[in-house]
Structure formats: C-alpha cells, structure tokens
Write a structure and sequence with these properties.
Layout: H1 4-15, H2 18-38, H3 51-81, H4 87-119, H5 123-148, H6 164-173, H7 175-192, H8 197-205, H9 210-238, H10 240-252, H11 254-257, H12 267-294, H13 300-329, E1 333-336, E2 340-342, H14 344-359, H15 373-384, H16 395-478
Antiparallel strand pairs: 1-2
Helix pairs in contact: 1-3, 1-13, 2-3, 2-5, 3-13, 4-5, 4-9, 6-13, 7-12, 7-13, 7-14, 9-10, 9-12, 10-12, 10-14
C-alpha cells in the first residue's frame, strides 16, 4: 500500500488540491468499511459461502489503497498548514487524543462484544455484534470527513512544468533527504527484524497469560501518552534531529531487557513496554518533524511518497530477514553464564547492535538552524537537577516554561532592586546636599555672629582706650 502513495502524489499534482484528494479518497475509504459492516447481511448459497471472504479481501485492499492516497495528501496539507515552530506540540496533542480515544474505544468495544456474546448463542448473531461495531466506527469516520471540509488549505506550490519522473528523482538528489531515508530504512530494519517475535517469545517461552499481555499493551499506551506530552514540547525547542538521538538511545536497549526475563520472573517486561512506549513516541514525532523540515514546500508530496514507499518496502523485508536470522541462531549459544544468551536472545542483541549503528547515520543529516546534539545534552543536564520526578510528563509543556518564567521574574526583580537602590542613592544624595547646605548656612551664621562679636569687642576696647586717655589728659592738666 505504501507504493500506492507515489501514485497518490501524481494524483495530487494533477488535481491541484490536496484537500479535495484527501476528502474524496477518505470518503471512499470510509464507505469500504461500511460495506464490510454490511457484509454479514449478504446472503449466499452454501456453495458460494467462500465468496464473502474474497469480497472482504477486495474491500480491504481498496480501503488500504484509499488510505495510502489520503495519507500522502493529508501529510502535505498539514505540513503547509501547521507552523513549523508549533508542529511538535500539534502532533503531540493530536497523538495523545488519538491514543486516549483509541484505548478507550478498544476497551469499550471488547466489553460490548463480551456482553453481546453472552446474550446471543448463535454464530450468526455474534457476527452481528461485530457488524454493529464496524457500523458505529463508520459513522464516526464519515463525520470526520465532513469535519475536514471546514479546514482551509494553503495554496499548492507550482511544479514549474517538471515531469513526474523528474520529480521522483528529486528526493534521491537531495543529500539530506536521501540520508534521512537511509537512516529511516536502517532504523526500521533494525527494529523490524525482532518486532514480530516479542509476542511469540512471551507466549511460547515465557508462557505469559493473554490477560497479562493485554495489560502490557495498556502500560505501553500510557507510556506513549506520557512520552508524547513530553517530547511534543521539547521538539519545538531543540528540533527533531537531537530528539531522534535522545529517544533513539532510549529505544536501542529495550531488546536487552528481554534477555533477563524468565517464566518464573518476567517483571522486567513491564519495564521494557513502558520504556518502549515512552521513547518510541518521541522517535515517531522526530521522524515526522525531520521529514517535514527536509522536504521543500514545492513538490513535498513527492518527497513524502518516496519516503513512504522506500521505507515501507524495506520494512516489509525486515520480518523475513528476522525469521532467517532466527533460524540461523537456533540451537546456538553465545554465552552460557549468569544469563544464557542463545537462540532468539541472540536476535535481541543483534537488533540492539543494528539500532546503535543506525543511530550514527543521524550525524550525516544536516538541518538548518538545528540545535546540536551536544547542546541538547548540556541543556538537559543543566535543568535536570531542578526537575522533580512528578514533573517528567509535563517537562516540555510546563517545566521549561517555568524555568523561563522564573528567569524572567528574577530579571525583573533584579531591575526593581537596582531601581530601588538608585532611588535610595538619589534620595540620599539629596539629603546629603541638604545637610551640607544647612551646615554651610549655619557656618555662615556663626561666622557672622563671631564677626559681630569681634567688632563689638574691638569697639568696646577702643572706647575703653579713649576713656583712659581722656582721663589721663584731665589729670595731667590739674597738677
């Protein structure tokens, strides 16, 4: 179905509207599932009873083709519609809503089938229970089509008259996008060779009950929601490339956890599901972000289609290669010590090694204005000691903003203190000037009074001298 996306990009180019292509093929996709829901009502003779299976497969194939064409049109549409600096938060919130609704409806649907099966004994009536579920899902799906009609579409960039074949060469001629495809293929292959064998290992080797396996899925779903909330805000700050390295390192070693599990104690499988859901949610966001950032706005549908086709093709080959490696490792013992590493456990280690090798290819992808991986780890280590454990799920949405708000408040406080000090100094200066003026005035007054006293004393002395001279003169004349 991923190969059909190349045809989808051609259809988008011919129609000239991603919104129109998305609405048409999405509506057809929903109607195919409406036909699937109505399939139990179709009556065939006993000799043609197998025809229902072929009709179901045909409807499923048409639905898959329509979904692939819808996906390429929708991806290009959203890439131009959502601002680059808001994509991480947008897709994280969208994925969280989809995850929560999906988990809730899965539990509700399973509960409905259980109740329906207890009320009806015949196989035909039990089949009607699934028909009702498919019908409800189809109604909500069609409602979603009409909701998309209300969303605007940016103008599609012109192709400048280039042929479709020449457009198909562009993704391979772009060095950064080509390296992104190589990295995605290598990472998908490294995870795909072991992915199908986890369930087999839980059932056949660890002998875990199906009810517990279902709970593992719930734990992974919860971890995905928590991780999506964290990575969605962080990717808008550091970019998709550093996030892919961070989450890739977290997702590389999850297969190693399975080596230490045993039928008597498989507690570590809980940890593995949580870690996988937490980090792989960030890997998905980072891959989407890098794809949209590297693809040019002109002809981005071709870039998205080529990426989906190449990665889908190698992704389909990965389980086959994993099966061949599993047969190759059968009966082989790599290490027989505290933990025996043999058979499928060697495949777990192989997947981990291939994931680490694939992660090194990220260094060859150059994204303009991207934060370096070293700067990312320095930023995280700088703020890590200030983050309590309960704030991890809301690190991107509230943690970093709290640090920024605290820094801003601190800056404002410093400015206020500086202003207060300046005001005090200004008032102190005015006070000192007033004191100096008062002192100088007092000094002048004292000097004036001293001068007056000196003048009075001098005048008194002069008068006394004149009085004594006068008395001496009068005495001398009387003798």
């Amino acid at each position: 179905a991923n190969l059909i996306q190349i045809a989808g990009s051609f259809i988008v180019a011919k129609v000239g509207s991603r919104k129109k292509v998305c609405l048409i093929y999405l509506f057809v996709h929903r109607m195919m599932w409406a036909c699937v829901a109505a399939l139990p009502l179709v009556v065939f003779s006993d000799r043609l009873d197998d025809v229902r299976v072929w009709i179901f497969l045909a409807l499923l194939m048409v639905a898959s083709i329509c979904a692939s064409i819808t996906g390429i049109a929708w991806t290009s549409w959203v890439a131009d519609l959502v601002p680059k600096d808001f994509r991480g938060r947008f897709f994280s919130r969208r994925n969280i809503v989809a995850q929560v609704v999906g988990m809730t409806m899965a539990v509700a649907g399973g509960r409905f089938i259980d109740i329906w099966s207890t009320l009806h004994d015949s196989a035909q009536m039990r089949g009607y229970g699934f028909m009702i579920l498919f019908g409800i899902g189809t109604v909500f799906g069609i409602a979603g089509v009409f909701t998309l009609r209300r969303i605007s579409e940016p103008e599609l960039s012109s192709t400048n008259g280039e042929s479709f074949l020449s457009q198909l060469k562009m993704p391979f001629q772009d060095h950064n996008f080509r390296m992104f495809i190589v990295f995605s293929v290598a990472w998908g292959f490294a995870t795909g060779i072991v992915g199908p064998f986890f369930s087999v290992y839980m059932i056949n080797t660890l002998r875990i009950p199906f009810s517990v396996i279902t709970l593992f899925g719930v734990v992974a779903g919860i971890a995905t929601i928590l991780g999506t909330r964290l990575w969605g805000g962080l990717i808008d700050r550091i970019g998709p490339k550093p996030l892919s390295v961070l989450c890739g390192l977290g997702g590389c070693f999850t297969p190693v956890f399975w080596i230490f599990a045993s039928p008597e104690n498989y507690t570590i499988i809980w940890v593995s599901h949580f870690v996988s859901g937490f980090f792989f949610s960030g890997i998905g966001l980072a891959a989407t972000g890098m794809m949209m950032n590297l693809a040019p706005s002109r002809n981005n549908t071709v870039f998205f289609a080529v990426f989906a086709a190449v990665t889908g093709m190698f992704g389909a080959l990965a389980p086959i290669a994993g099966g061949a490696l599993g047969e190759l490792f059968r009966g082989r013992v790599l290490y027989d010590g505290f933990v025996a590493i043999s058979d499928i456990r060697i495949l777990f280690l192989t997947s981990t090694a291939l994931r680490l090798l694939a992660l090194t290819l990220v260094n060859f992808i150059k994204i303009p204005d991207a934060v370096s991986v070293r700067s990312m780890f320095l930023s995280i280590s700088r703020y890590q000691r200030f983050l309590p454990l309960y704030s991890i799920p809301s690190f991107a949405s509230s943690g970093m903003s709290s640090v920024e708000n605290g820094t801003a408040n601190m800056s404002r406080s410093i400015v206020a203190v500086e202003r207060m000090i300046d005001d005090i100094l200004r008032r102190g200066g005015d006070l000192s000037k007033a004191v100096v003026f008062r002192v100088r005035s007092f000094d002048r007054r004292i000097d004036e009074k001293l001068d007056r006293h000196e003048q009075f004393i001098d005048q008194t002395i002069d008068r006394m001298k004149g009085f004594f001279k006068k008395n001496r003169g009068s005495r001398g004349g009387g003798e």
